[in-house]
Design brief:
Length: 515
Amino acid sequence: MKEDVSPSGPPFVELKGISKRYGDLLANDGIDLAIAPGEIHALLGENGAGKSTLVKILYGVIEPSAGEIRWEGRPVTIGSPVEARALGLGMVFQHFSLFDEMTVAENIAVALSDEWDLAMVRSRLSEISRTYGLALDADRAVWTLSAGERQRIEIVRCLLQNPRLLILDEPTSVLTPQEAEHLFKTLDKLSAEGCSILYISHKLEEVRRLCRRATILRAGRVVATIDPRAISAREIAALMVGNEVGEIRSDAPHAPQGEVLRVNHLNMPPAGLHGVALKDINFVARAGEIVGIAGVAGNGQSELFAALSGERLADRADTVTIAGRACGTIGIDTRRRLSAAFVPEERLGHAAAPTHRLSENTLISHAATEVSRSGFILLNAAKRLARTIIKSFDVRTPEGDPQARKLSGGNLQKFVIGREIIRKPKLLIVDQPTWGVDAGAARLIRQALVDLAREGSAVVVVSQDLDELFEVADQMAVIHQGSLSPLKPIRAWTREAVGLEMLGVAQAQGGAHAV
């Protein structure tokens, strides 16, 4: 399984012995990587494996401490992204860098050199859209576009610069299954035309669909270069994390009891200029089950989480009922005292205070239920609790009680979810539980959610990751433009049906979204 595979021809781009040191930390340690002309090559590894450092070196964002980059066999120095683009290297980042108030054409023009005017951009945009099937309206404002359409802007912006190597970082994280398949066809076409692609993703099945070679990093080193089609996704994950990644277990059958959460005709205006209004949301979560809420980013998930957690209050108390109490008009601390727990999407700054220590961060949610205890006693208890969370949820920390900002994203996510689960709440609502988290951490988090539900809690999981929802959810609904489809058993959904709901097609056709 670990036997290396070589490119079929001479490499187009080659990294030889790339190392990057930050003080005592060796982020990249003698990495070799070769990409052939027209190859779609995957770069895989868990969080902190060194992927981001490596592509930043390749794109000219940071300078390597040692090693060499060869472009068509000749050594090159890439001192900035401008130099990278001039060489023929384009990059589409995981987080879009677009101006919401500007049009599609204007967003593309600002990234190009001064010789491009809007008329030239419109002309080339139309040509590329036809060639690659990347439909875009040059005069639409970006804030009106879906996540898939925004990603097309980033890709077209790169293609206008005629890249010979395209780097894609988690490109399907905000796409529907249909949009993802459309992207794969575009990448296949680019590859057939000779454009090399370096593909970074945690979604191993799509890597197996697209790539013939994958380089796997662990702790800053290359541990294998494989043909991902030749082994299973689980075997690939084991190479990434260094041990076997098992399936999610459920020792107890799905046996839901009484309702813990009822959402009843919840309507809420958008929070800001580009927010999404919630429109007549209705669903129930019962003890012993996981309810999944699927959807493409920006369709009301954040607004729904805020309404359920009490960060935003409704006009009527009975719009949200927790453990039998109508609480749509009461805040988050009161809801916590009803044995509800909440994990927001943004872990650093929302779920955790960056400059506070982990022990102090446990007080964010636990203090609400410990109001009778003195601050000194509470802080000492919080330190003990933080140590328990760190041990129970395998949180890797640089020191015993570090500031939250010193943890990697995956480890901080394990901590904030562990902080809520360890309370054994009657209700847990979690938004994007494994966003940007590697296979090992994702499995630990998903297993903890399943275990909590099987112990009798109601769990609501809001996620853009369909693999995740199909793995853990008992019931699922889809949110689109602030409206929620009917809740149905997970076995009643297909990926195609979910994708149609995500696009709003099924609702427009009368809700024919289930098998």
